[in-house]
Amino acid sequence: MPKVHLRSHTLEPSYDVVIIGGGGHGLATAYYLAKEFGVRRVVVLERAYIGSGGTGRNTTVLRANYKTPETIRFYKKSFDLYATLAQDLDYNMLRSERGLLWLAHSEPQLRNQRERALQNQHFGVNTVFLGAEQVHEVCPQLDMTAGSKRPILGAAYHPPGAIIRHDAVAWGYAAAAERLGVQIHQGVEVTGLRIEGARCLGVETNRGFIGAGAVLSAVGGYVTQIAEMARIRLPIVTHPLQAFVTEAYKPVLDRIVASADLHIYISQSARGELLVGAEIDPYSSYATRSTFPFLASCASRAIDLFPFMARLRILRQWTGVCDMTPDYSPLMGLTAVDRFCISSGWGTWGFKAIPASGILMAELLASGKVPPLMAPFALDRFRWDRAVPERASAGTH
Ligand SMILES: Cc1cc2nc3c(=O)[nH]c(=O)nc-3n(C[C@H](O)[C@H](O)[C@H](O)COP(=O)(O)OP(=O)(O)OC[C@H]3O[C@@H](n4cnc5c(N)ncnc54)[C@H](O)[C@@H]3O)c2cc1C
Question: Are both 120 and 254 inside the same structural domain?
């Protein structure tokens, strides 16, 4: 395994590309800029430490079972890139295919999951619809009555659904990008953008001005703050999202189970912890404080599905912030300010998008042309009434 500690560099007065934010999206873009497009005078500026945002706080689910043609194509590309990422970056990521069950406990959700399976198959994504008996066969640990509250009627089953180590994704991209000459600076905060005549010339930071041929904002839940510096208003609202893990337990759950009716999803990590995620907090905030009401309600729903979990103790609970768009799809590409691009709107679904977004964003920054797979997610889709509705695909609302 290659060396993973980040080297220390002197900040230069200018770079070809300045990337704000050392999360998965910023680091992946830097890596692909250098590897695929030969752009190596690239710097990633991270105000805290890499992976300290949503990238290091998410619940690590990888899947391609979306509902609209635009998003299925996009996430399929990302899913395929993830499949070989450990080899590409020469970094162990503990990727583990589990099979993902998306449960239906109501007639509307049954219809939704049937549609999902058909739409996925049309675009070459492996998802099948299962009746209740087949769901029980695939995951016998499930209480099919959900605590006698909402019986499970069926599910969309996505056999390739997987989990992967999230911090390894951040560190794998960072280490590989560094080997190609990219600079990564932690503890450098962007405090302003220098814009003249609708063109971005660089960034103001706590370490002074840095000139840039192009600037990319990849700051997750903080994107409206950076956009504000360019006087751009985005249709994004930031919400907290919480999750928790139990103490380690023997290997007992080899599937990922999600339920849109119960607003919950559960998997078991390589360490044996049961990992539970659920809906976003209903209010807008940048707070990353965890709450007891979330924990109590989420734990009770988890126990309805898996009664054995009632015996487990909770080990850890945490919170991240999510940049939510009105249609639950990403918001990426060019802006009204020349040479200022955004990679945002990753909400509660952006971890699985990192490789595709990174390579497409690198192509945009290197060529100035919007790649076709990225085009549907442009900011002006809201002006032209071309939203890409994917709310039904987020397990978190
Ligand atoms: C609890 C939880 C569970 C989730 N589960 C999943 C899941 O299972 N699957 C999935 O696909 N997605 C999931 N997500 C969503 C996913 O984590 C995010 O969409 C994704 O990580 C966003 O990555 P990013 O690189 O855009 O942002 P981040 O990883 O948040 O990185 C942004 C970085 O920018 C830095 N920054 C901010 N402002 C500045 C500044 N002014 N100057 C310099 N640096 C700055 C921050 O410090 C941060 O490190 C989940 C999120 C949470 C919170």
Answer: yes
